[in-house]
């Protein structure tokens, strides 16, 4: 038996938004399955995203994903970039998520998990994230200002004082128009009468405008008029 010891890891807990409704639709809709195969394909694509020499561990159960890797502060950019790429891939396939990423004591072996860091990341997801974003803990931010201040570090600071993984970005693999089309599709297909969902869509549209210099978000105020 391998050594059963708690060690320090980077740990991210991520929740796929709208998962319950997806399960209900695929289980009950007379039109057949819509989400299962897409979600499973995204899960399989994770192997290509989590490359390099970091010892990533990925566990998905129901709507929850736990991503971990041995702690090495110099490799924080690699861990954050892996989350950003994975989150962007979800977005391109029509899914949003939110979560938290931190570090702490953690043990994982096959299908067994025991982790203080996971508990902390879970509380960040449930209490702080709110929007489709993966919050980065202040402890990680403070550990290495040189790394954080690097212009290539994939993180954005919001006006609520929280930093999150920057997952809307164009590169040689994904063009701006591809991202914009995927985001517009997600917004257009979102339930219009569910206020909590529309709050997330407003946040997503403003974040998109900031990152891609688009005009997806709608004005907060406009003149009142009534058709006669």
What is the structure about, briefly put?
The protein is α+β, with helices and mostly antiparallel strands.
Describe it for me?
- There is one protein chain.
- By secondary structure, this protein is α+β, with helices and mostly antiparallel strands.
- The chain has a single domain, classed as Nucleotide cyclase, GGDEF domain (Alpha-Beta Plaits).
- The protein contains eight helices and eight strands.
- The protein has helices spanning 19-28, 36-49, 76-92, 116-129, 138-143, 145-148, 176-189, 195-212, and strands at 7-16, 57-61, 64-70, 97-109, 112-115, 134-136, 155-157, 163-165.
- Strands 1, 2, 3, 4, 5, 6, 7 and 8 form an eight-stranded mixed beta sheet that branches.
- The longest helix is centred in the last third of the chain and has 18 residues, at 195-212.
- The protein is globular, with a radius of gyration of 19 Å.
Name the features.
single chain; 228 residues; alpha+beta; Alpha-Beta Plaits; eight-stranded mixed sheet; 8 helices; 8 strands; 43% helix; globular
């Amino acid at each position: 038996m391998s050594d059963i010891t708690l060690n320090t890891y980077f740990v991210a807990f991520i929740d796929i938004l709208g998962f319950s409704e997806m399960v209900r639709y695929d289980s009950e809709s007379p039109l057949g399955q819509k989400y299962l195969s897409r979600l499973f394909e995204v899960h399989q694509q994770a192997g290509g995203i989590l490359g390099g020499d970091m010892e990533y561990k990925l566990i998905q159960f129901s709507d929850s994903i736990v991503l971990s890797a041995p702690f090495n502060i110099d490799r924080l950019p690699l861990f954050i970039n892996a989350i950003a790429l994975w989150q962007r891939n979800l977005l391109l396939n029509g899914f949003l998520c939110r979560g938290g990423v931190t570090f702490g004591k953690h043990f994982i072996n096959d299908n067994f998990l025991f982790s203080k860091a996971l508990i902390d990341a879970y509380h960040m997801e449930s209490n702080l994230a709110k929007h489709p974003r993966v919050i980065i803990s202040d402890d990680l931010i403070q550990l290495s200002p040189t790394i954080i201040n690097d212009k290539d570090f994939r993180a954005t600071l919001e006006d609520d004082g929280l930093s999150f993984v920057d997952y809307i970005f164009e590169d040689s693999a994904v063009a701006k128009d591809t991202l914009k089309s995927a985001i517009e599709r997600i917004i257009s297909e979102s339930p219009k009468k569910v206020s909590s969902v529309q709050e997330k869509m407003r946040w997503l549209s403003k974040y998109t405008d900031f990152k891609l210099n688009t005009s997806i978000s709608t004005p907060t105020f406009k003149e009142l008029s009534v058709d006669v």
